[in-house]
Amino acid sequence: MSETTLVKGASLYGDRTADLLLRDGVIAEIGSISTPDGARIVDADGLIALPGLVDLHTHLREPGREDAETILTGSRAAAVGGYTAVLAMANTSPVTDTAEAAERVHDLGRAAGLVDVHPVGAVTGGLGGEELAELGLMHRSRARVSVFSDDGRCVADARVMRRALEYVKAFGGVVSQHAQDPSLAGPTSCCHEGELSGRLGLPGWPGIAEEVVVARDVMLARHTGSRVHVAHASTAGTVEVLRWAKSLGIEVTAEVTPHHLLLTTDLLAGYDPTYKVNPPLRPQEDVDALRAALADGTIDAVATDHAPHARHDKEHAFVDAAFGMLGLETALPVVASVMVSSGLMTWAEVARVMSSTPAAIAGLGSQGRPLEVGQPANLVLVDPAATLVVDRERSVSLSRNNPWHGRTLGASVVATFLRGRPTVLGGELTEP
Amino acid sequence: MRKHLLSIDDVSADDAVTLFATAAEMHDVQSRQVKKLPALRGRTIINLFFEDSTRTRSSFEIAGKWLSADTINIAAKGSSASKGESLRDTVLTIAAMGVDALVMRHPASGAALQVSQWIDAAVINAGDGTHEHPTQALLDAYTLQRRLGGPGSLEGKRIAIVGDLTHSRVFRSNVLLLTKLGASVTVVAPPTLMPSGVGSWSREAGFATSYDLDEVLPTADAVMMLRVQRERMTGGYFPSAREYTVGYGLTRDRLRLLGPDVPICHPGPMNRGLEIAADAADAAQSAVLEQVSAGVAIRMAILYHLLAGDEA
């Protein structure tokens, strides 16, 4: 049955105010609109309307670790965070490295029905780093996989990376690289290598381990004429490489996480594994460079790297605890706090880095579209004046590894619409 | 002192003076025929060692027993942790048995601090990864103080700490404590074995760094050699054992650069012929065995102040 919603008085991209009529999954009308019979009315006075957010980098843990997150619970977290599409990373158990595995994730996402769940395919079989996974078959499957990543691990072998970049050209795919040279930052490397790691006696993860791989990969992208995407860029050096590569016209895009835009490595002084993430939190000078790069377009997108973990996987000694932190529910408030409140970005630019550009990178035609008549009615309503004190126990994720717990963040998501249907209203989920 | 001993940060200079005074009294117990004080009767101390150790564990065990505590050793290596149990669950289980103090060694930096946030018992860090080994630092400083002229004698003394600094918890605790006690510390290592960021750290903490042992030794009032962990030798930190010894070992020739009263410390176990020549290890000025006996006295003092201090 078709559903009609009238969003009254929203500020589009934080600019002009208008009503939006959502009907049959599309934006049917924009302007001053009288209420149609039977329509749901959403009062958006003081709220900002943006296209639904798209996350290039989500870990949903299903299959394999359904105690930490499932596709349903992760979808809930995404909807609450204002997302209408997420890309689910391949490092599940089993790994998403076949068409069948990709279709299963895709189908579970559809069944959850809260966001579009697009599986990311592994670059190499079993994330082993040696043999290419069935990239073409995953693309031809009904999951239509276009983004490939061994995330969690780096495609360290240059020959394998070259072949992957060449191969995905056939269908316009993109390889998203977790840049971490394993000979410079091995498996025990657990925090930024610097003065604090020296004092704490923790094995360091130097920024150069990221930068050398990014530098190599942009050269491979130039050589192959293919598209490479840098996952979770974390250092000023990476920004320099990206800026240089883009000036040469190399097809490279990059994402930054909300936590790398706000949190710094000094949080590790108490060995709290909540703040253990890969790549690690960096010093303020890197954070400043990342913010500037996001604002000037050198970094293209914000991606959450939402990485839920069961409590017991974090209750180990720091070096043994799992990497990762939650991100879906808090990404927009963090970006608002860091980039908008500071004047570094407008809301329209937030829409670019959190919706339209990530959708374009992933090749999602119906997501990240502008708020215009005839476009899919994927949108989010944000209260820019709200302040949010994060309480990890209120999360709809199954996990609680929330680095923002107790912090006050600016702006909050009030409503999310997926093809015209509200998935969140008044900040609360509306399950289908 | 605070409730726990996790880091030298928990010990003020005044605390150290108090501990050294108590240790001196405890030291006398070692020469008695009946080595027993009643101070911790009825108290239970668990030595929970997730990593092999002979001397530190034995030292704590003897210290506890001479104070009449019930001391129990648990070697956790290869037990619950290897079965997938979280560290929190492991220590909660042990704490639930009724324990007054947990002496803990763990291969991961920060583990003792984390555990102290989970349980009520006093936690004593007996070495956490490459982070700290505070009781070793206290026994080292106590030994040096006795050698260099008694209470207050570390003030203004030039002390060299030499070796694999990156992987040394002994270095990290010692540099904090010795500078706190007024010593002038220079740490010496090849650049590959200097901790990352040591430049700004040393400026802030007030110690010096050097790559040149021969330059530092002639003016040193005491030398602390650190063990080279043999597994590091394949990690590309230095080209060969021979080259390390030539550059950074306390060789027979370098021994001559030291004054005859300059104490030589080593936390053990020693790699004779690698970081320390046999001549140096066995020299009259070597304090290595004194460090071991001082270790018992210092650990008795620590247990006493943590567990019976208020009642004393």
TrEMBL record, chain A:
Zn(2+) 2 binds at D151, H178, H232. The active site is at D305. It holds the Pfam family DHOase. The keyword Zinc applies. One of its GO terms (molecular function) is dihydroorotase activity. Its EC number is 3.5.2.3. Residues 48-235 form the Dihydroorotase catalytic domain. Zn(2+) 1 binds at H57, H59, D151, D305. It comes from the Bacteria. Catalyzes the reversible cyclization of carbamoyl aspartate to dihydroorotate. This is Dihydroorotase. It comes from Nocardioides plantarum. The lineage of its organism: Bacteria, Bacillati, Actinomycetota, Actinomycetes, Propionibacteriales. The gene is pyrC.
TrEMBL record, chain B:
The keyword Membrane does not apply. Residues 3-145 form the Aspartate/ornithine carbamoyltransferase carbamoyl-P binding domain. GO terms for molecular function: aspartate carbamoyltransferase activity. InterPro entries: Asp/Orn_carbamoyltranf_P-bd (IPR006132), Asp/Orn_carbamoylTrfase (IPR006130), Asp/Orn_carbamoylTrfase_sf (IPR036901), Asp_carbamoyltransf (IPR002082), Asp_carbamoyltransf_Asp/Orn-bd (IPR006131). Carbamoyl phosphate binds at R55, T56, R105, H133, Q136, G268, P269. It catalyses: carbamoyl phosphate + L-aspartate = N-carbamoyl-L-aspartate + phosphate + H(+). The keyword Chloroplast does not apply. Pathway: Pyrimidine metabolism; UMP biosynthesis via de novo pathway; (S)-dihydroorotate from bicarbonate: step 2/3. Signal peptide: none annotated. Keywords: Pyrimidine biosynthesis, Transferase. Belongs to the aspartate/ornithine carbamoyltransferase superfamily. ATCase family. NCBIfam families: asp_carb_tr, PRK00856.1. This is Aspartate carbamoyltransferase. It comes from Nocardioides plantarum. The gene is pyrB.
